[in-house]
Amino acid sequence: MANQDTRPIGVFDSGVGGLSVLREIRALLPHESLLYCADSGHAPYGDKSQQLIRERSLELAEFLVRHEAKAIVIACNTATAAAARALRERWPNLPVIGMEPAVKPAAAATRGGTVGVLATVGTLASAQFAALLDTFGQDVHVVTQPGVGLVEAVERGELKAESTRHLLTAHLKPLLAAGADVIVLGCTHYVFLRELVETIVGPAVKVIDTGAAVARQLDRRLAEAGHHAPEQAPRAVRFWCSGNPASVAHAIEVLWGERIWPDPLARSQVFRPGQH
What is the extent of the structural domain holding 65? Predict the structure, then answer.
């Protein structure tokens, strides 16, 4: 009989974008408790050095491990490329689930043979992304576009602002001009702009992200280890941040869709790492 493990699942991102992945995890695994770390004090990661991203990722993962996380989800394409290997080497017995832009499903979905990838500068420049193109992009034309400024817009909760629409339109224009009929959202922040993306590109263009696939992989890893929480387990969601807790709490409320209570006994709250 499988163990029933009530320890939480730890998730981190450069900021609040990883909440798109957290949302998929909660939908698939509703009985699990969740810890989320937003490194908003260092966001965005896309223009940071690989060394800094790796150091931050190790520090955040260490924080989650100290809070008894039974698995770590790197809810960031850029951090996965920079640090997934280091985390797996540091904690070889802990499931570490990373993510990557959905080039494989996009290549399978395109009708015209052109795929557009909207991602951060760091993700597009990574060896991991180059390997993805070598493996799955050989038979399609892949056009890339760095989404400069989009992470900051999401961090501010400006999902429907006219300035965000203009910025997003400018980034999508070259992908559409190249004939892309599939757009990959290669950053967890961008998933919160999906509705706006779909409005801009129109119904003939398919939009893909990898949040649900990451949740399914986490589910498989927990099942293999016998570490699912029992259905009757009390569920809690806790948030931490490295930035200003007040502003991050507001962004989380906008993106997560729930009130973040300051009461220390509440099931959803925001702390800085080092507290509690």
Answer: 9-99+212-271
